[in-house]
Amino acid sequence: MGNSTRLYDQINQATTRLAQLKARELMAAQREAARHRETARRNEALRRSQLGALVFAAGCEELPDGEIVAALLNYVAGHPDAEGRARARVRGDAHLAALAAGCVLRKH
């Protein structure tokens, strides 16, 4: 009877230890998922801030929101090909570079 009690205790201890390890593993996975969600949230907030800064860099900060959205929608509808988008990107990059160098006069 002593051996079976001892064996039962060992099984019970091993089961408890396994449950603890599984709980730690689950908690670690939850922490990792929370870190990923927080990183994604920060990246989205940064991107939104960058997009707002681009509206200012283009000198369009005084336009109503609807006009800004309409201009973007018109652009997307009118430039479906890669070549048109590449031309627009070159023009935009040149404007941003000139703005950074202080060579662009802003309309105010």
Based on CA atoms alone, the radius of gyration comes out at 29 Å
Low-confidence stretches: none
Calculate the terminal CA-CA distance, rounded to whole Å.
93 Å
Envelope shape: rod-shaped
Q: What is the count of DSSP helices, taking H or I runs of 4+ residues?
A: 3
Nearest-integer average pLDDT:
90
Helix content: over 70%
Q: Please state the structural category.
A: mainly alpha
> What is the number of domains?
2
Order of helices and strands: HHH
Which strand-content bin applies to the residues? under 5%
Largest sheet: none
The overall strand count is 0
Short description:
The protein has helices at residues 2-57, 65-78, 82-101. With 108 residues, it is mostly helical.
Please characterize this protein's 3D structure:
The structure is a single chain. The protein is mainly alpha-helical and 108 residues long. It folds into two domains: 1-57; 59-108. The chain has helices spanning 2-57, 65-78, 82-101. The longest helix has 56 residues, at 2-57. The termini are far apart. The mean pLDDT is 90. This is Conjugal transfer protein TraD. InterPro entries: Conjugal_tfr_TraD_a-type.
Key words describing this protein structure:
2 domains; 108 residues; rod-shaped; single chain
SSE diagram, text form:
Blueprint: H1 2-57, H2 65-78, H3 82-101
